[in-house]
Amino acid sequence: MRVAGFGCRPGAPIEALRDALTRTGTQDLAALATIPAREAELTAFARELALPLRLTGVEGIATPTRSERIQALHGTGSIAEAAALSACEPGARIIVTRVTSACGRATAAIAEDKETP
């Protein structure tokens, strides 16, 4: 199972989310994930892709990349990476570290569980 995790600025447009996901180069997703505070930004995009949206906590989840600002605010280095990991099964790993949309308002990362070939 592959999950795309997202972080974004409040009010980020769907185009920014779409661009961030495109930049991951990943297909065959099972779900999208983000923090509860960004549900409004991700709901329409998840509906567009016909994928479930998983809302998850991210505090304390170790991530390959690290933003000092996000660490201070949310207790993790990357909301996108932590949300993707949290929404997958235990033992999941990041296969695409966070990428940023061209406008800078959204990030996406991809995690997969250990069962995915």
TrEMBL record:
Domain CobE/GbiG C-terminal: from-to ranges: 3-111
GO MF annotation, one: methyltransferase activity
Alphabetized UniProt keyword annotations: Methyltransferase, Transferase
Superkingdom in the source lineage: Bacteria
InterPro entries in the cross-refs: CobE/GbiG_C (IPR002750), CobE/GbiG_C_sf (IPR036518)
GO BP of this protein: cobalamin biosynthetic process; methylation
Record keyword Nucleotidyltransferase present: no
Protein name: Precorrin methylase
Organism placement in taxonomy: Bacteria, Pseudomonadati, Pseudomonadota, Alphaproteobacteria, Rhodobacterales
